[in-house]
Amino acid sequence: MTSKLRxxxxxxxxxxxxxxxxxxxxxxxxxAGQTGWKxxxxxxxxxxxxxxxxxxxxxxxxxxxxxxxxxxSLFASLGANVATAGFLDLADPPAWLRFGIAGWPAVAxxxxxxxxxxxxxxxxxxxxxxxxxxVEPEPVSLMPTPPEYVAESEPVPPEPAIAPxxxxxxxxxxxxxxxxxxxxxxxxxxxxxxxxxxxxxVPAPMADAIAAQLA
Length: 215
Known about the structure:
The protein is an all-alpha fold. Helices cover 64% and strands 0% of the residues. It has seven helices and no strands. The radius of gyration is 58 Å and the shape is rod-shaped. The chain starts with a helix and ends with a helix.
C-alpha cells in the first residue's frame, strides 16, 4: 500500500511540474511573438528533446552528445521558468529572447536528429592472448612389439639359412695338409681357401670345411 501511494505521489508531482514548465514555455514563446499553435508547439519541442536525451543516457550510457542536448533542453526549460517569474518584461521582450525563440526549432531539429541517428561508440573489451589448446602426448610403450602385431607394411626379413657343413674324408684332409705345406714352402705364405679349392678341385663349402680343419 505504501509503495502504491509513493508511486502515485511521484506521478502527481511529475504532472504538476510538467504542466507548470509547459505553461511557462508557452507564455515565453507567446511573449516573443509566436502566437497560436506555434506557442503551444515550443514546450512540446523542448520536453521531447529533454526526454530523448535522457532516454539516450539511460539506454546507451554516458556520452557527450546525450549530455550536451540534455543540458540544452534543460536550460531552455529552466530559463523559461525563471524568465516568466518577473525577471523579464514579457510585454516588451528583449531582442536576444526573440532571436533565441525564433532559432529554437532548428536547434531542436538538429538535436533530435543526432540523438536518433547517431550510433553509440562500441565498448572496448580487453582481450588477452588466446591460450593454445593443450595436446596430451601419446603414451610411449616400453614393451617390445610382439612379432604377430607387426604391421604388414613392415615385413620381417627372414633369417638366413645356415647350410650344414659338408663331411670331409680324413684322407682328403691329409692330402690338403700336404698341399698347404708345399704351398707354404714355395711361396712363404699360408694357402688361402680359393687356392686350396683350386688345387683340390672341390666345391667351395667343402673347401671352407677343409680350411677350417687346417687352421
